[in-house]
Batch of 4 targets.
Target 1
Amino acid sequence: MLSPRRSRYLVRPRQIAMYLTKNVTAKYLPDIGREFSGRDHTTVIHSVKTINKVKVRDEEISKTIEKLKNKILYKNYDEG
């Protein structure tokens, strides 16, 4: 995910990672971009907007993202 490549199989997971980073940390957009191979803050904004749109359209991805978010926030999260 930290690769500078824009291959399709890397883009969506990287967008999700940026989305989660933005939503579960207090980091500023430029800081998040730098953590992902020196990307610009506008790339982070684009990723967040894209994932917000995808979550509305695709319930499975939405559930997966929520599970990941819960695992990050609550390390002992059990899908129960």
Target 2
Amino acid sequence: MTGRIVQISGSVIDVKFQAGNLPSINEALTVETADGRRVMEVAQHIGHDMVRCIMLASSDGMSKGMEVERTMGSIRVPVGTSVL
């Protein structure tokens, strides 16, 4: 399931999805840029099948109309033995 970026304001991204496919709060979304995959988290449902997301990295290279993919899960961080 995918959506499209409709607005970018620094690290705040608004994404529109088709009716009935709205991701849940705290769901991780991804977008492919020339520099690789970027991850954002859904922070708010803002109506009209749109969500407001917070980027976890720079939004440089992103633009309106880019395709955003749902992960159907929350943000994940790899943990190695040195962290444990």
Target 3
Amino acid sequence: MQLGWIDFSKEDRQKALDVINLLSEQGAVDELGIGTVRDAFANCFFPGTSTVQTRAKYFFIVPYILKDAVDGRYGKDIDRILTEIDADEKDCAKRLLNSDSKVEGVIGSRVLPKGWVSRRPSDIYWNGIKRYGIFCYKDLSIQEYILSAVEIEKRKSDIKSDKHTYDEEENNNDDVDAGDIDSIKFWSMPSFGNDWRDNLTIDLTKEESEYLNRQIQKETRGSLLEYILKNKIILDEYDSFESLRYALSDKVDSETADMMKLACDFNNLIYMARVRYNLMLSEGENKDALSEWERVRNDIKYRAQVNLNEVFFKLKLINIRTKKFLCDIQSAFINEDIDLADEIIRKRELHLKGSARAKLMRTKEFDHSKWVGGKELDYRFFNARRIINDIYNWR
């Protein structure tokens, strides 16, 4: 299938690329259209994270590059600055690989040195950088930041170079304007030297680790992420979100405990639907799906017991069609009407994709030995674990 779009700006183009990249993210495949619920839970537990974030160091590499980019070294042309940012990010990836060719989590490692990624580290980390208060103006895009920063530098330069004689009132107004400009602060992060690229590694420094730990706790108060960092929970001891939930259910506050239980209950329902989806897609031949269905089929009624009204209320979601699908599939499982469940799943995919793209309308075209779509919902647990481990294991 080919996709195309008409865009009128680089920002429009990036938004389209973001959608396309989202569809290819590991763990983000959403054949049944429940991604809004999954992501809402993930944002509740691990705000600022995403499924394509790789290492915590990028929460500093990206700001360092963006802050350098508007200091005048690349001039004032926005297109040139954006091009130089892209080149700088690629150069940093090469430096990281040169420091350790086996290092994990370097964005672009599979295509370097000749190629480069369509979705840059700055695009991947920008929302997290704003969410954690590293960048102070949360409504600005990267391009808007650059435009604003360049304009501010221009106005500062104009004020300094102004040689005209003004009367006293005009002088006072200029002083006020200059003060307003000087008070604008885009970034809140540790100072860094001009040589930060030298000997660049993927590991955080002690100062970076302490700062990021502090910022995340400050900006995500009440979240599971804050609790983990505050209590230095070692996530390597847990192999799933569910195992973490059982370990912390009597330690976290009651609201967080209730949300974790609700998320696990929701996962139980969705996982059964995903197993059935793969059985239908493989025409009953997928061994993993057959094995998983045998494992869960005796507990269908129990696994379907999730309070969907509470899910949508607590997550503040309004999606009538998604909620109807979930209620319908839940009812079918509770009544152990598997034929009806399969039909609901089939109609759901057909509604989401249309007959030309719905996989269940073209079962012969797919490898029946491969699992399609996600399995258990982890709500970005594994992505957050990598970031948290980086914070713990600074060099």
Target 4
Amino acid sequence: MKIGSFLAGGLIAVACSALTPALAQNIGKGEVLAEQRCARCHGIKPGQKSKHGLAPTFPKIASRYSVWGLQEALAEGIVVGHADMPRFVFSPEEINDLLAFMDTFSRKKGSSQ
């Protein structure tokens, strides 16, 4: 019984460690994407203010909403209430990367997909 529990625990640890670098890579790619496409208006990190008065910061968005709820809007081209926001269309991989980065600011950890 102890050997079975030990093996199961080991397999879980190996599976989790295998996912960690991929998730870290997604978060890193998402941060670069946010810097390239979003940072000219949005504060994308804690302590940063948004450069545009109507653009909420990423930490504020993540604290108020499940960022994964933005998948469809990002896929279709996010459109908001102020006219000067550019219309962005992201690939599925870019969406997952960007949302993985934004999810690092969520109050509820484990809110990922």
